[in-house]
Specification:
Length: 549
Amino acid sequence: MTDRNFMIVGSGVAGLVGAVTAAAAGLRPVIIEKSDLWGGTTALSGGVVWAPGNDLMARDGQSDSPETARDYVLNLLGNDPSARRRAKVDRFLEAVPQMVRDLAGQGIDWIRNPDHPDYYPLVPGSDVGRTIEPAVIDGNRLGPDMATMRGMSAGFPQMPTSQMGVFSRMKTGPKPLFGALSILARNKLWRMTGREPLSRGRALLAWLMLAARRKGIPLLLQARLVDLELVDSRVARAVIETPQGREVLEVPAGVLLAAGGFGHNPELRRKYHGDLDGSWSSAPPSDEGDGLLIATRLGAAVEFIEHAWWQPTLMIAPGQPSLTLAERAMPGSIIVDSKGQRFMNEAQSYMAAGEALREHGRKNGGGANWLLFDQRFLDRYVFRVLSYKATRASMMRHGYLKSAPSLAALAGECGIDPATLRQTVDRFNAFAREGHDSDFQRGETNYDRYWADPANRPNPCLGEIARGPFYAARVFDGDIGTNGGVMTDRHSRVLKDDETPIPGLYAAGNCSGSPFGGTYPGGGATIGAAAVFGYLAARHAAGIDAPTA
């Protein structure tokens, strides 16, 4: 049976979906993970999946044709992408409903967020409700695997991503307060009855690991891939390194590289991203480009290597990044540059906002950017970082958060001209009273309003910054991982420069070039693409999908 051995490198969503699919197709998968923790970047994520045309949409009576979704993605890609790229988009859209269905058959409990808009709502083909996510699960069902799962469940209450907006607005009225209290009560009840609630990315991983363990799939921790060997021009052996030494494993069915990107490889970051070394990346420390480096040694081509899943990021302490979502969309905050001026719609999707941060920095020679807000903002809303005194104290100790009784004093703390900052805030406050942002149209799209406060009038995204003390949190152009890597085709096969495949070698997730290029179609597009192409790699390795180009 060794001819059915199939190796998966990495234990995030791409790897686990690939492993479960491979086992269901008759292969003998093994997962290797170089870290002593499993879960990868997925464990630190919201765990949502962008899945156009999924069964949950149909169940709720919402139609979503592949043609509409295809138009949307191709409109984002623009410039007439190549036949190979179009084929990858088509294969993603064809496969994602079936993958969701197959994983449900493996026990994954999916729920849908019917209100979540795509990230570019003004682009033709965009829609609402294509994002799905896992239900909350009892982590104790994992047994010993719970202790080696990446991430922490303590602290902020466990809830699906679709409920986080309600929780953030709990102080704004009876309805969100009741919703938040229900979330807190469920968390307490679970723990009182001996259950450990897991949500978001960790929930997705837990459901997948349960499916993997039911199929007897082994997971080897602290097992690092160091080389791949060819037999008759096909990847057939893997050299791994464990605490016990090096070992050569026979993998005639092939290898799926699902080891993440190179978020924390300073050399690769500086080579491909210029000014970044990964210090602000929210990818796990083990995200060092192993898959990319090994594949390119075998002749793999690369694509979109200069891209990442950009995300405006706060820092709690050195090495402790935190992503910003609601903080940018809720009324009562703005982002200003080192001159004290706004330069973007703060409430747009995190990919677009992250790109705006980088582009503005390039044009203006860098300099610090600041998320500016007042005490009313801090008192009115609940955030995962800013609402905790201990976290704010850490940020202040490290210079990542400033506070002052007046805007003029805050400007001095941040090295900003007080007059310019005062002018910027006065202008924004006028927009808030009018209900229209004449500079950047914040609050004009359904995505802007998704993370905002519907109780705030006249615009749910716009609120005055007027009641001291005032605060400024430093905003960095961070990311949730890189999304450029080895070139692949519609079957997830790794390709050479001439677009011919390296037999037996597959890649999915952040170690491969994203099917969406430098764009981010909707909530969960990164996890959706990783899962689908992990799924397709396993099917192709098992001979289910026709081995055609």
